[in-house]
Amino acid sequence: MRVSAIPAATKVDRPLLKAMPKRIAEGAVLLLWGWLLKLVTNVWRLTAALANPLRTTRSSFMIPRNSVNSVQHFMQLEGIDHIAMGVRDIGQSAQWYIDVLGFERLHEGMWDGVPTFIGKGNTGIALFPASQEPKLPSYREIRMLHLAFRADCENFRTAQQELKKRGIKFEFQDHGIAHSIYFRDPDGHQLEITTYDLN
Predict the structure, then answer these.
(1) How far apart are CA 89 and CA 186, in angstroms?
(2) Each residue's pLDDT tens digit, 101-140
(3) pTM, to two decimals
(4) What domain count does the chain have?
(5) Which CATH number characterizes residue 169's domain?
(6) 116: domain range?
(7) How many alpha carbons fall within 13 Å on the CB side of residue 110?
(8) Is there a contact between 198 and 178 (Cβ–Cβ < 8 Å)?
């Protein structure tokens, strides 16, 4: 009696063997898609972090992770809505911010013009009439030191050209992680334009 060279069990498994290359290929495709999705996610996170270096630096510095001293914040703020400034002439100051920095009037017709709101992007300024009362010699003023606006590298250069054209003096400072220019509005408030794009 002749014995078959291939056992019966192996003959039964032949369809499975034929399907294996297809299943291996499908598994490899799934692994590749998973790897690609992870890569895209990591690139997106890195791009978001590089697009806003100040926010990334501040949040990692101010909110320690895995720390006993970490602070839990109960209120979630979206950011600064506006700042309030005292000025000698509301109309003149509003027009200066519109002409020089490209601001727009906000909430026109409200509150009989006091305060007058102007804004650019997400930054708002409320202009109030400054008090003309004389201050006592011993009075120590607690005040805003400066207001900073952010720009990309191209608009940072354009801002310098525009200020020169208008005869507005400014001072350049290199802060290592950022470059800034400082100048003053008609009431002497110090303003800053800063860029983190140092290319």
Answers:
(1) 9
(2) 899 998 888 888 888 999 988 889 999 888 766 666 655 5
(3) 0.54
(4) 2
(5) 3.10.180.10
(6) 80-132
(7) 10
(8) yes
